[in-house]
Amino acid sequence: MAGFMEGYGAGEEARNRVVKRTFLIGVPAILLAVGAFFYFRTWSQERAIGRFTDALEAKSYQDAYRMWCPTDKDCRYYPFQKFQEDWGPNGIYGKPEQLTFGSVDYCNSGVVFEVSYPNQQPFGLWVDRNTNVIGFSSAERCPGKHLAVGAFFKRFFSSSEPIQAPAAPR
Length: 170
Known about the structure:
Blueprint: H1 10-40, H2 43-57, H3 61-68, H4 80-87, E1 100-106, E2 110-116, E3 123-128, E4 134-136, H5 149-157
Antiparallel strand pairs: 1-2, 2-3, 3-4
Helix pairs in contact: 2-3
């Protein structure tokens, strides 16, 4: 009878170790995968906007226009002369180093970048997800509700007013 109770609980102990290891490895792996998905989901479109602004800064307007209009039939309503008026050296957005990018919205078929330029209304640049063709967006943001996690943390961790100490009790 001495060996009857020796193995009691050993199977449950091993099962608890497996559950604990699975939890300690699985949860961080899932969080890492979700974070990587949201970080890299607009990676290609961000690179396209970067190449576009680099071409404008290098004054390679023909290259920048090809990112906007890969074929001539696509841009019969936005010819190169009009592109030069907007993005050229004397254009409205003639100094690409002054462009600032705000929110990035992931839409169904593209990505909208909110762009600000000094003394101009903010506008949206649309980048098609399949072709990375750039164009003006009809709005600064994608239509619909937005999960503004970045704005939440910015508001949560920074305050415009100094924090005041509570009044002393009387």
